[in-house]
Amino acid sequence: MSTLFDNIQTFLLNVFLLYFCYSVYFKFIEKKSNKLTNVAMIALISGIAIILCMTFPVMLPNGYTADFRQFPLILGALYGGRRVAVFLLFVLLSYRFYLDIPSFEQAFFIYSLFIFLLCYIIPRFNKTINIQKKVLLAVLAFLLGTIARLTMLFLFLPEYINLYYFGLFISSAILQSLGVMLFVFFIERARKEAVLAKEISKLEKLKTVSTLAASISHEVRNPLTVTKGFLQLLDDSDLRDQDKKHYISTALEAIEKAESIITDYLTFAKPSLENTKILNLHQELIHIKGFVESYAVMNNVEIEMSLEENIYIASEKEKLHQCLINIIKNGIEAMPQGGKLTIELKYFKSNATINITDTGVGMNEEQLERLGSPFFTTKDLGTGLGSMVVYSIVKAMGGEIYVDSAPGKGTSFTVILSTAEEAEIN
Predict the structure, then answer these.
(1) Residue 180 is part of which domain span?
(2) Rounded CA separation 250/254 (Å)
């Protein structure tokens, strides 16, 4: 009973080692390496798996042993190629010689013949796209290995040929062939799904770009059409000076709107920081307040500030202003009946925390989830670029942004940025 339990443990250990080695490779290593590194890694992993399988064989009655050495030999050869197959043959025979297993010359001849036949299957396996065909070729490779081992038994080790050993041999072969089938099937399906996911991601990006381009062209065309119309009216010789000034002013406003849309688009497309400087956040927020205060007064919004001093960050001044002004402007516009907008600056755990809170209409959970997504806006005349720009700039600055909101209770934006080191400030 103890021997049976030990053999079950050894069997499960072999299965776990094989699964662990190949799952780690195909899940993590293969996706992040070039072709040459992939070949080297599959050779190394398969070689280690062969040694481990031969080190921990299943001990059977009458001195018989069984192991899973063919499993990594076949998988490594199929996915690594002919050179890997030859390398794994060398590893298997060398370790077999080290363990002093009898009939080395016969094993050398049989395994060499098997690798020769396997080299015929390898290019067909790699060229085949169909998963079912790959599974069949893997099973064929395993059958060739089984036939090779049976040939060695009949020709060189006839003393092992009896009903008991033959039954164990066939049972082991069936188990390993099923394992090879399942491994190849799941590996190929995972690869196919990974390729499909990559293609879907590309298509989604292309869709986003095309939709963004369509949106931008539409938003820019409107002010350009306005500008064109008023410039055509200026051609009228009987036009009064007062009307000319009005038309010019309106045309310039339309051009400024188009410029603003293009600036937002470029910031979203390229949010990286170029002219990074050490900025005093206390001073920058006071400057930003002065910039937006007239707009707040026009909308009957009171701005309150609570700012800690001597908090510095490394950032691009224009991008920081653009990000925070967008948040403040959105907060003001979220209070059509007027209200209060609070700006707080605190130092917490080596980070600068900027909290901008309004008492506006707020957002529900669905709107919060979509915030920052392309073209999403809660305003009637918005382009959806403002929130995208905010998220892009914060990400480029290496910061984080959190939003808390509830319908009728207002919205709170929290921007967390890493502070500059003391050496950088000095």
Answers:
(1) 2-201
(2) 6
Interior CA angle at 269 toward 267 and 273, to 5°? 50
Q: Are 50 and 157 in a shared domain?
A: yes
Mean pLDDT of the 386-413 span: 86
Question: Where among 201, 224, 239 does a domain terminate?
Answer: 201
Q: Nearest Cα to 415, choosing from 350, 327, 340, 342?
A: 327
Q: What is the CATH number of the domain that holds 350?
A: 3.30.565.10
194: Cα separation from own chain's centroid? 11
Which of the listed residues 201, 226, 253 is the one where a domain comes to its end? 201
pLDDT tens-digit profile of 251-298?
888 888 777 767 766 666 665 566 788 999 999 999 989 888 888 888
pLDDT digits (tens, 9 = 90+) for 230-263: 788 777 777 787 877 888 888 888 888 777 767 7
Rounded Cα gap, residues 245 and 306, in angstroms: 43
89 pLDDT above the threshold of 60: yes
What is this structure's pTM?
0.50
pLDDT at residue number 178 = 79
Query: Rounded to the nearest 5 degrees, what angle is found at the Cα of 100, between the Cα atoms of 97 and 101?
Result: 90
Strands (E), 308-372: 312-316, 339-348, 351-358
Instruction: Indicate the number of domains in the chain.
Output: 2
Q: Is 342 helix (H, G, I), strand (E, B) or coil?
A: strand
Task: Please name the residue ranges forming H helices in 68-130.
Answer: 70-80, 82-98, 104-127
What is the rounded distance in angstroms from the CA atom of residue 154 to the CA atom of residue 148? 10
